[in-house]
């Protein structure tokens, strides 16, 4: 269990016994998100900073760029990318978590019977160690008393099963899952473009400062610009771009972060998987249109997925 899962679990247990104080304590878990928006910390080493907006507007566009038309164009592009990043972020937060439907929950009697025939070690039920007669042909969550659809997993941080679970992100205080995976990816995508645009357009200001004879007058604003450029370059572009490449690599083979760490094995066929080809895999996440907008265009319900079976052809020997 990760460090943030331990924190979430302790807070959830405390809230069950102390509802009032637990409510306010749970709200504190959003401190990483709030500080990220205010630009006080990094998110995956990315600056989301009001300070960077100030530097770009008043120093890059207002001081170093001499053409008003060029400055206006640069500012419009930068603001548009930042707006799309924030829109994607809030969409991933407000869309809600894809929970397992209530009709997948079993009765207490069935739950007790399942627990009775399942080995229990170190505080966990281990269905994989059941005998063949006890082994189940379905996935079951002993904590939620619910059947688990394919690709769903129990999130120890949230304390519930999540449909097409990817991972729990402490920086947005939510699970990345079936409903918010697309806006989460677009958030990373537009944040990366924002960082790249800032760095590329700021290089001109860097050259102008070097060629400018009046270094003393421009030294303070240039130092502010250089600080943001270094922070964006070192703590922004590399990890963001790496994460973006990682997730699009997962999409290309139709896997989640959880499945990449622990590959899922479909029952009765160890060679079956969800990889339908890059085009279909992409469509499952982004739909048929509006790819660049954080809107729900998914073609799947998160409960049922098309499976690819590998057909082995045997050639008889003569």
From TrEMBL:
Source taxon at top rank: Eukaryota
Topology in the lipid bilayer: Multi-pass membrane protein
Domain (Palmitoyltransferase DHHC) ranges: 137-262
Keywords of this entry: Acyltransferase, Membrane, Transferase, Transmembrane, Transmembrane helix
Catalytic activity as recorded in UniProt: L-cysteinyl-[protein] + hexadecanoyl-CoA = S-hexadecanoyl-L-cysteinyl-[protein] + CoA
GO molecular function: protein-cysteine S-palmitoyltransferase activity
Annotated TM spans: 20-42, 49-65, 71-95, 184-210, 222-240
GO cellular component: membrane
Record EC number: 2.3.1.225
Subcellular location: Membrane
Family designation: Belongs to the DHHC palmitoyltransferase family.
Note on domains (UniProt): The DHHC domain is required for palmitoyltransferase activity.
Protein name (Swiss-Prot/TrEMBL): Palmitoyltransferase
Species whose genome carries this gene: Angiostrongylus costaricensis
């Amino acid at each position: 269990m990760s460090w943030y899962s331990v924190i979430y679990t302790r807070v959830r247990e405390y809230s069950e016994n102390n509802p009032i104080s637990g409510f306010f304590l749970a709200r504190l878990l959003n401190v990483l998100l709030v500080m990220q928006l205010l630009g006080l910390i990094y998110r995956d080493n990315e600056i989301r900073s009001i300070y960077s907006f100030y530097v770009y507007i008043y120093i890059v566009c207002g001081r170093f760029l001499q053409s008003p038309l060029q400055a206006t164009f640069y500012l419009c592009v930068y603001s548009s990318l930042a707006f799309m990043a924030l829109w994607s972020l809030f969409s991933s937060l407000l869309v809600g978590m894809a929970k397992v439907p209530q009709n997948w929950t079993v009765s207490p009697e069935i739950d007790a019977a399942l627990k009775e025939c399942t080995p229990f070690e170190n505080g966990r039920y281990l269905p994989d160690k059941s005998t063949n007669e006890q082994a189940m042909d379905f996935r079951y969550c002993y904590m939620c008393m619910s059947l688990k659809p394919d690709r769903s997993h129990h999130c120890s941080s949230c304390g519930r099963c999540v449909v097409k679970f990817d991972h729990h992100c402490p920086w947005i205080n939510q699970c990345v899952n079936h409903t918010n995976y697309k806006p989460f990816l677009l958030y990373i995508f537009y944040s990366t473009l924002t960082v790249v645009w800032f760095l590329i357009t700021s290089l001109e200001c860097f050259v102008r400062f070097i060629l400018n004879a009046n270094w003393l007058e421009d030294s303070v604003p240039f130092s502010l610009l250089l600080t943001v450029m270094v922070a964006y370059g070192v703590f922004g572009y590399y990890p963001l771009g790496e994460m973006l490449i990682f997730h699009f690599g997962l999409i290309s083979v139709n896997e989640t972060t959880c499945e990449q760490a622990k590959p899922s094995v479909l029952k009765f066929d160890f060679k079956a998987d969800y990889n339908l080809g890059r085009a279909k895999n992409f469509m499952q996440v982004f739909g048929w249109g509006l790819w660049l907008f954080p809107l729900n265009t998914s073609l799947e319900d998160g409960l049922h997925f098309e499976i690819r079976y590998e057909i082995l052809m045997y050639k008889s020997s003569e």
